[in-house]
Amino acid sequence: MSLLQRLSQGSLFSDDSLLQAREGYLPIAQASPAEAAFDHWTQRLTTQNELGIAREMAGLPEETLSELAAVFARTPRRARTDKLRSAIPIGAAILGVGIAGLWLASGLSPSSAEVVLRTLAMACAAGGGILLSIGVLKAFGAMPLEVAHGRLGVFTSLLDEQHPWLYKASFVMRDRAADAYRRRILSERGPLRGVDYIMMGEIARAQDAIEMTRLARTVAEQLSRVDAAPADGQAKERRLVSVPSDRSATSR
Questions:
Q1: Angle, helix 50-57 to helix 35-45, in steps of 10 degrees
Q2: If exposure means fewest CB atoms within 10 Å of the residue's CB, which of 1, 87, 148, 249 is most exposed?
Q3: Rounded to an integer, what distance in angstroms lies between the CA atom of residue 1 and that of residue 18?
Q4: Is 64 or 5 the better-scoring residue by pLDDT?
Q5: Same-domain pairing of 37 and 132
């Protein structure tokens, strides 16, 4: 996407930057009427931490989460709805008209028409520059919302083979408490989503913190204990032994 196209959308973010912010996630488009709810959660994600949002969203019904995920699938790039969303392209156009007017005025002989044209051109250039500057500042202010829009899409999307947190979630579920949370969500709400990885990761970190409170003497004794199990923690695999049949034993 060119710089002019990005400016016409009232944004300074390129598609590559947005994809990098959401870890390359770009789902297949679906249909959903939950744009207002998605915008509400996007606004909240800019003012609260991700764990707080994940705690709230993990308790939402599966239908609501599915609708929010469908909104992101349909609009992976946030559409601005503020009054200054067209300030950048309009300001650039007015500025261009003013510059063109100054160029035309420079080729005219000194006269009243030349003075009028130059004055109008300078007014257009100044007004366009001011409007363009306001639009650029507003676009910078909208950057957190665009990033939050993508992060919310990752939060609400299914933990399927396209999700960037799939392998991270598989590592976290090795913790027993995190795996218990996974089983409860699957049985009570439905398939796992990005918010569930956030919750599982926090549960695993809490369990690690509990382990760090164990007495050092107890940990040292456990490390020095010789167990009957193999060093790799896995039981030795039984091997098959060939047993002669009755016929072969009789022949001997």
A1: 150
A2: 249
A3: 12
A4: 64
A5: no
